[in-house]
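Deliverable D5.2: sample structural annotation.
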Amino acid sequence: GAGGSDPADFTEFNGELFFSATDGSFGVELWKVTAGGSVVRVADIDSGPDSSFPAGFTAFNGELFFAAFDGTRGTELWKMTAGGSVVRVADINPGAGGSDPLGFTEFNGELFFSATDGSSGFELWKVTAGGSVVRAADINSGAGGSLPTEFTAFNGELYFRATDGSSGTELWKLAAGGSVVRAADINSGAGSSFPAEFTEFNGELFFQATDGSSGQELWKVMAGGSVVRAADINPGAAGSGLGDFTAFNSALFFQATDGNSGFELWKVTAGGSVVRAADINPGVGGSNPFELTVFDPDGVGALVLSDLLSGGEGDALLGALGGGSSGGSGGGGTAAAPTLVIAPPAGPPEEDEAALAGLV
């Protein structure tokens, strides 16, 4: 019919593909594609036409965990067992309120996430290896909550952003030994650095943050644990507005502006230098690259990015031809340098991919 099932959150587990969808009669529920290709509803958690809105599917310890709403107890932690049963794991915030768990991340044999028990605000929780659900830390004591998000494992520790109620939203970590500590107070005092988009590259953890004077810029956690600003691309309070970090061809690509050339494609090289990779739309307008995606048709690597070049949509392709020589002989030489190609969209996504493959 005309309604659509709105499938989302596709996650492979135990040889099957799970997702959320609605058939128009039972609301948004848990569905799957079986190994044989059949599409079936797994569970009607909120019975009838209402929706359970299952989300955040994460495989852990042989089971599939997710958040869902059964219509009476609010959004809580659920799972599908290895045997196929769908059950609520814990009622963290008893009653209709719900704990709203999110950000499920496996680390050191446990599953960490953010949730609220209704009295302590959103804090760091976990499912232990034995299956118990416990609060891992109460970083901001009281009802306010620390609002932990952006969980990222790096160098044997779990990094995330949170606030203790006095130092603003800053960089925190869970050490391998289990202690939860603030990793850095980048914007000293009550202000926030708002660290985000944690991405590991070349043995370091890169992210965006502000120190309160230089705007959102490129920062990193070094292999030894020190937190330093990697580059001040647009000096001053405005910041470079960087984001969409994507590792490709021994470099970390992202979008940013230096204040003069508009938003363009930048990169961190393997040696640690931060440089503009391409000025796709010369001048102050910028090309506004986003949705950087590694595209690998038939083993030929390429970095695909959407752009808004001169107000019209297009696709930019940064290709690195793997295995070829600089002289084009295809054997024994150094790999060809990356090249940049601008091409108009071919239409639907599958046609775009075919066109991009032809350009490489």
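Annotation notes: Residues 309-314, 320-339, 342-360 have pLDDT under 50 and may be disordered. Residues 33 and 143 are 41 Å apart (CA to CA).
The annotation will be released with the project's public dataset once the embargo ends.
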